[in-house]
Every structure is written in C-alpha cells, then in structure tokens.
Amino acid sequence: MKEVPPIKKSKEAQPKKALTMCQFENESMKTKVIFALMAREVEEFKEQDKEYPTNVRKILDDFSDLWPVELPNQLPSMRDIQHAIDLIPGASLPNLPAYKMNPTKHDELKRQVDELLTKGFIRESLSPYRVPALLTPKDGSWQMCVDSHAINKITIKYRFPITRLDDMLDMMIGSVIFSKINLRSRIIKYVLDQGMNGRHLSKLRMDCMSGFVVSSKGVETNLEKIKAIVDWLVPTNIHEVQSFHGMATFYRRFIRNFSSIMAPITECMKLGLFIWTKAADKAFEEIKSKMVNLPILHLLGFEKVFEVACDASHVGIGAVLN
C-alpha cells in the first residue's frame, strides 16, 4: 500500500496573525482594552540607565560628582602627603619575569597599558624591581591586575593604635555637625581653595558610629542593633549566654545598675558550666525590656564641676562621674 501523503492546510485555513487597518479599528470599537506590541530600536545600555531604588538613586544623584562617566585624562595635583611603600632595609628586591600569555591576551594587555600611558595614570620606569601584570576575566572583559605578593613580603608592616570609642565620643562635645575632616584636620591637609572652605558640610549624612547615633542631643543607641537583643531567644548553652552577655554589655552605659541586673546571667558562665536559673531568666527578660526604651546620654561638658559617685554590693562595684 502506498503511503498517504499528509494533508496540507491551505493558507485560508491558517489563523491570521496580522490585522488590516479596518479590522484593527473594528476590534478597538468592540473591546475596551487593547494591548499593542510596538518595536523600536534598542539603544546601547548605559550604566546610568540602570534602575535603582529611590533612596539609592537620591544618593547617587547627590554625589554624582564623585563618580563621573569617564575619568579625566590626568592625575590630580600634587598633595602635601604622597603615598610611599616603605621596604624592609636590606631585603632582596623582586625582579620577576612576565607571565606567559597567548597573543590575544598580550595585545589586550598592551592596549590597556598604552591607554594608561596616554592618560598619564602611569609612566615608564627604570625601577630596580619588577612584578608582573596579568589579565583576569570580569563582566565579559579583561581586567589588568598586578601580582604584588613579592612586594608585600618585603613591605614594612606599620602598626597604628586604635582610638578608644569613649575618647572619640568626648571629642564631639558641643558639636552639631560632624565630619571626619573636622576630626582629622590636624593630621591630613586638604588642598581646597578659599571658596570651598566648609562646602563639605552640605554633603554630610547622619550615620552610626560603632553602634551609636551621635547628634547635638547626645548619644543614643542604634535601633537596628537593639532589635537583635530584644528578639534574642532564651539561651540554651553557654556560648549563647556569652554572646548575649557581650552584646548587652556593649550598651551597659544606657542601663542603670546594669551589673547588678546582669549578675544572675554572669553566674551562669562561671566554671564553664551552663546552669540557667529562674533568676537568670528574670534578668534576661528585664535586660530585654529595658533595651526598648533606652535614654539619650548627654555628652560630658568639661567646663562643669564633676562629682564621683561610688557604690558597691555583694555582686557589683562601680563609680560614675556626675
């Protein structure tokens, strides 16, 4: 038997995918809602066309001068403080050969180096030491990186003391507008013309300082940090007790008689044994309840007379400046 060929549908039987002008007008008269698909030329995507949340977009607009679309083809003017890498005296200077790469990567690396030379960001050097550059993939393109492991091994590691938080808070007494430039003006010199003095004050934003919110009223807690303590579940082991104790102790200055209230919880951590008592549970809930309505602490006024108030008991000892 011969195979019967498949039946071919006529063009009239196939559904129409296009409407004439008259058919479109008739259809629009019958229906209330019409969805029209229109084609347009797609322009090249730009970074500034990306959609951001409203609060993020506002910050980007306010500080748009900090990240231009293209960097200027020159370095900034010379400053009083110049960056320098101090090496260990007598250390062997590295002089490493370039990494092996294929012709495509070599041409790309040369292109990026020539571009940096043209812009003045780098310059030819006859330095006695050398470290290789390489290309790494990033966002569909190649990014030039410098392997500085050899330099890091012979670099002097400087150690700087960390400023105590209490001392930093004392520096803010009587201040209304806070700026890092004000706090560090004795260390860093900024190249500003006379018309720019104080202009940075209009760029400031309220921010938290190590878990505290500092304003002209005083020092208060960060609500986001406090929420973690308020929502803390009852500890089930000694590690959870230690975590809660450390978090709550950070805000001890805001709670009157904190050591006495926390004493039952402190007892649970002694000898490395976890014993959760009724007194500890009561203190746990009391600490959490006091965290909800913490006072605003006024910054000290050193022009006034201080009084030392001391107190002690079987579970705690302390002193306060009034």
TrEMBL record:
SUPFAM superfamilies: DNA/RNA polymerases. Residues 276-321 form the Reverse transcriptase/retrotransposon-derived protein RNase H-like domain. InterPro entries: DNA/RNA_pol_sf, Rev_trsase/Diguanyl_cyclase, RT_RNaseH_2. It comes from the Eukaryota. This is Retrovirus-related Pol polyprotein from transposon 297. It comes from Vitis vinifera.
